[in-house]
Amino acid sequence: MDNIFDRRMFLKSLAAFGVCSALPSVAFAKTQSANIFVWITLRGAMDGLNVVVPYGDKDYLPQRPSIGLHKNQLNKLDDFFGLHPALKSCYQWYQQGEMAFIHACASPYRQRSHFDGQKVLENGTEDPLHRDGWLNRFLSVDSKQHTIAIDSGLPLIVQGNAQADSWYPHKLKIKQQQAELLQEMYQSDQALSDNFINALDIEKMAGHVKGGQQFHVLAQQAGKFLTSENGPNIAVLELGGWDTHAGEGAVKGRLASQLKKLDEGLSALKSQLGEAWSRTVVIAASEFGRTIAENGTKGTDHGTANAMLIAGGTVNGKKVITKWPGLAKSQQYKGRDLAPTTDIRSICKTVLHSHLRATNKQLDIVFPSSSELPIMNDLIRNS
């Protein structure tokens, strides 16, 4: 059984890396729904407490004397939370009711390893060693979904038995004669031949890409794939660089620079989607959060609960969804972290159910042992 799985992954890797690196790599999917879903992994553990800032909590600023943001530096979300000013487009969407934030949320993971935390976030279980991704399991139960990953490899979230494509910008050019020779070489193996033809189709769909591998370029390209004829309706992206142990900054600094990249990427995605934005949901989430108190190098260390972003034309936004646990020492998880009160899987289940029409039975397969986690009925508009 393992050999069959490994062969499938090998064949998908050929497509992901453009047949032995002759072509680029991105991950896509298409479902029974015409609606669009974009998942963005924020690798490195974003500091949600300085993104969706609880300025109304009296214990926030005393624990962040150097990196804390004051109320007058924020874009006000409500009487308790404010948004980091680097997220300019996101704030506009929030005001328009197309963006919401979920705070004090976490995956089931409770340790501090980036690698294991990301695995649990992407495989949708409690076990870092689980080998397939939750989005791939969704593709398995809904064979009409079509996904693409904009990534240099195939991320765990879309790994598994179901087909998922991938693409990444490259500088190599494959000539027609070379393509024909490769296609002829792969004819003896149907799976290799199919993957090669699929990679060529993706490359043709991508067209000429300017700007290299910057996040806003990749996000724009995702929008192009998602609005192409016979293109996917699910895309997976990632943005690394969130591990702010030192020099995190407040209004300016490392975190602000990351948020600007994210904001510009989301804006490019929305612009490229055009009218399709009206039937889109985007989720951006990290493997875990960061400590409540700043450290001695004016940064933060690995924590537990975090904030996540959800945007799109079908999002019932303009709200921060949370069961706020508080930041006082007695309220902290293990005496240092924001305590988790919402499971990220609840948000993902809600989007699959309300936006992509997944049934409860399908959700039990996608997220095993999660039947007690509720679907949020007022997060997604009827679409």
UniProtKB/TrEMBL annotation:
Key word Cytoplasm present: no
Query: Do the record's keywords include Nucleus?
Result: no
Which superkingdom is the protein from?
Bacteria
Q: Which Pfam families match?
A: DUF1501
Q: Which UniProt keywords apply?
A: Signal
Signal peptide (from-to): 1-29
Q: What is this protein called?
A: Tat pathway signal protein
Q: What is the lineage of its organism?
A: Bacteria, Pseudomonadati, Pseudomonadota, Gammaproteobacteria, Vibrionales
